[in-house]
Design the sequence.
């Protein structure tokens, strides 16, 4: 088959680029102001690959540019920062918890999740940082170091360092290797190939140039989580909002410039006379501080009146909202969460925010599956079959429950099915509804007290209440002493 000429390929790429949705926005902006189009033109480069083996529509250079812009706006722009913060806060809150009954599995997972060297990634702060990284960059790479006979260590790899993903030629979903180009702390350059979690046996493959490759890092697997994408590489949550965030910043800067210009002159003095008289009147107040509430004396030869300035604030407010709404739509969060609480009420909280609840629940499920996959690798490293283990992983509630309504529902359910009252899951749900941060620890303490009470749960509960009362009294006495 004869290959297309280079000229024909370029023409086809230009035609496809002309049909792209991004260029529709670019055309509108170009018609409005050529200077904005010139500034954004560099960001449009790369939207040319609409077909191919991996289905990528953004080339590597454009993807890196988008990632860096996303990091910039996350750190410097209030709208970008708030969007990422809300996604992480609602999804992870104080952090996730898990429980497992199988003792060998419990021991292996505890060693992994609570290892001092893994706290920076798996602790509460690490979980939040992982979420921020995945949302800002659009993807996250976990490197799992499987030390023979030791604890699995987990670290992040910067997505900018992953330059190629090598897949099975017959199955694009089966990733074989990740190529990493990186520099160490001594500025030494390295090129490494890491095995994917779907290729733990280092089966070998060919890179994009057709060269045979094998892993250069023994006992290291890479887990890749890509978000906001239908292809291999992920896209930042802020990607659809980047252009609009930039224009809103320019809009506000322009508004500030207008207000500063209008504030330069506040009063107008009209003098009946020549330039000498104007200079004389000016000299009386020039570069002199006039106290508030002072009285100004004038005659018929001088008239001092305030300058009426129309800033167009009402129209500007509406214009600004139109731009901001593009950002809100891009991140999936209503405007009342970005500072304007006048737009929200109880009715919208129960209707408009339902899609937001579903969105965060879906994001929680994505992370639940991710940690489940990682736990499977950890258990396999410990020689434990994952299919024989059940891990109960709980995320914090996205919205606070109505405690009275929840308690009434629990009482009704247990009344209809009394056997549920002995279920640890039901007890855990009840404790979480009451706002207990560590329900597993409370249940363990109740179980301990039950054993000490000869198996009588009523006596155990009474002892627990006595201990709770004593702890509250000590806390109150301590606070009173500090006062």
Sequence:
């Amino acid at each position: 088959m004869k290959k297309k000429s280079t000229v024909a390929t370029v023409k086809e790429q230009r035609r496809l680029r002309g049909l792209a949705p991004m260029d529709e926005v670019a055309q509108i902006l170009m018609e409005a102001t050529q200077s904005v189009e010139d500034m954004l033109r560099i960001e449009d480069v790369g939207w040319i690959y609409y077909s191919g083996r991996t289905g990528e529509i953004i080339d590597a250079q454009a993807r890196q540019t988008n990632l860096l812009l996303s990091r910039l706006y996350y750190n410097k722009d209030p709208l970008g920062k708030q969007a990422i913060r809300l996604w992480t806060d609602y999804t992870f809150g104080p952090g996730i918890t898990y429980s497992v009954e199988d003792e060998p599995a419990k021991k292996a997972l505890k060693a992994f999740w609570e290892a001092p060297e893994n706290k920076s990634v798996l602790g509460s702060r690490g979980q939040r940082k992982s979420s921020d990284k995945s949302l800002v960059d659009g993807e996250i790479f976990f490197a799992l170091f499987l030390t023979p006979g030791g604890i699995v260590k987990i670290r992040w790899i910067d997505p900018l360092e992953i330059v190629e993903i090598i897949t099975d030629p017959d199955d694009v979903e089966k990733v074989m290797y990740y190529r990493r180009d990186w520099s160490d702390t001594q500025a030494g350059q390295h090129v490494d190939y890491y095995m994917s979690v779907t290729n733990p046996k280092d089966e070998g493959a060919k890179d994009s140039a057709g060269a045979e490759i094998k892993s250069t890092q023994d006992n290291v697997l890479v887990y890749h989580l890509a978000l906001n994408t239908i292809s291999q590489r992920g896209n930042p949550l802020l990607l659809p909002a980047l252009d609009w965030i930039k224009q809103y910043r320019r809009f506000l800067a322009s508004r500030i410039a207008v207000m500063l210009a209008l504030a330069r002159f506040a009063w107008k003095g009209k003098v009946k006379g020549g330039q000498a008289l104007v200079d004389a009147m000016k000299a009386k107040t020039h570069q002199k501080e006039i106290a508030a509430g002072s009285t100004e004396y004038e005659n018929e030869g001088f008239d001092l009146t305030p300058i009426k300035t129309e800033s167009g604030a009402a129209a500007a407010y509406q214009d600004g909202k139109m731009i901001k709404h593009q950002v809100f739509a891009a991140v999936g969060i209503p405007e009342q969460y970005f500072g304007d609480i006048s737009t929200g009420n109880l009715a919208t909280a129960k209707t408009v925010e339902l899609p937001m609840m579903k969105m965060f629940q879906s994001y929680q499920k994505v992370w639940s599956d991710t940690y489940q996959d990682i736990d499977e690798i950890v258990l396999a490293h410990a020689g434990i079959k994952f299919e024989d283990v059940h891990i109960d992983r709980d995320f914090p509630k996205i919205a606070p429950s109505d405690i009275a309504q929840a308690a009434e529902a629990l009482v009704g359910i247990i009344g209809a099915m009394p056997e549920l009252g002995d279920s640890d899951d039901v007890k855990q749900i009840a404790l979480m509804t009451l706002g207990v941060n560590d329900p597993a620890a409370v249940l363990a303490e109740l179980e301990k007290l039950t054993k000490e009470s000869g198996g009588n749960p009523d006596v155990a509960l009474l002892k627990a209440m006595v201990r709770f009362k004593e702890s509250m009294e000590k806390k109150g006495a301590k606070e009173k002493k500090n006062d």
Remarks:
- Residues 388-482 form one domain.
